[in-house]
Design brief:
Blueprint lengths: L1 H32 L17 E9 L2 E8 L5 E6 L4 E7 L7
Antiparallel strand pairs: 1-2, 2-3, 3-4
């Protein structure tokens, strides 16, 4: 009777190790299959020639980039560095004091 308990225990332990090892192996394969993101990837903000970045600040997880010149009014480009996409553009206009 003790031998049967021992065999059952060994079977349970080996089954656990097989399942755990398989999950670990699948996780490693999945992570290696994912394309790596290049954090230093070049990104074009699609601004006109002559534009210049005046300042950059963070707003939550995004970057707020103040862009001047380029034949347009000053504007703020909200950029998400995690998705490498422009979220929005805010155009600034001067108001006349009359």
């Amino acid at each position: 009777m003790d031998k049967l308990k021992l065999i059952k225990s060994i079977v349970v332990i080996i089954t656990f190790l097989l399942v755990f090892g398989s999950l670990l192996l699948l996780t490693v394969i999945y992570k290696k299959a994912q394309p790596k993101q290049d954090i230093y990837q070049e990104k074009n903000l699609a601004q006109p020639i002559g534009s210049s970045i005046s300042s950059v600040t963070t707003v939550g997880n995004n970057l707020a980039i103040l862009i001047k010149d380029g034949g347009e009014a000053d504007r703020i480009v909200i950029y998400n560095p995690q998705t490498l996409q422009k979220v929005s553009t805010i155009h600034l206009q001067e108001t006349s004091n009359e």
